[in-house]
Amino acid sequence: MQRDAEELPPVDYGGPTAEGDLPVVEPPRTEPPGREHTRNLLTLGIFLLLATLTITTLAAAVAGVNSDSLARIAEITISPVVALCGTAFGFYFAERSHR
Question: Which long-range contacts (CB under 8 A, 24 or more apart) does 83-88 make?
Fold first, then answer.
């Protein structure tokens, strides 16, 4: 069953119309009370994890651990944590810049 074009309601895309109307402004979003605190704790925890892994790897290098073993362990542990830090920090600071 087809409808005629006259029966369909007009679509509002939220932007200015040909008549010069202003777009509809949505109210600011509100966040649950503990969300910012949780974000701060997660970001700090990930940063401390990266710092601990880095310092431990450097200490093992100074202590004379086999460089091949150390490189493999660092590759397995530090690389994913760096990626996780980049994602978390990017999300955290992007969210803060929109306020």
Answer: 84/46, 85/46, 85/47, 85/50, 88/42, 88/43, 88/46
The answer for residues whose C-beta is within 8 angstroms of residue 95's C-beta and 6 or more apart is: 39
CA distance 33 to 25: 24
Structure tokens, 82: 């760096």
pLDDT value, residue 97:
66
pLDDT of 68-77, one tens digit each? Answer: 999 998 899 9
Report how far residue 64's alpha carbon sits from residue 92's, in angstroms, rounded to the nearest whole number. 38
Q: How far is CA 8 from CA 5, 12, 39, in A?
A: 6, 12, 46
CA atoms 23, 27, 32, 37: torsion sign: positive
Q: How confident is the model at residue 8 (pLDDT cuts 50, 70, 90)?
A: low
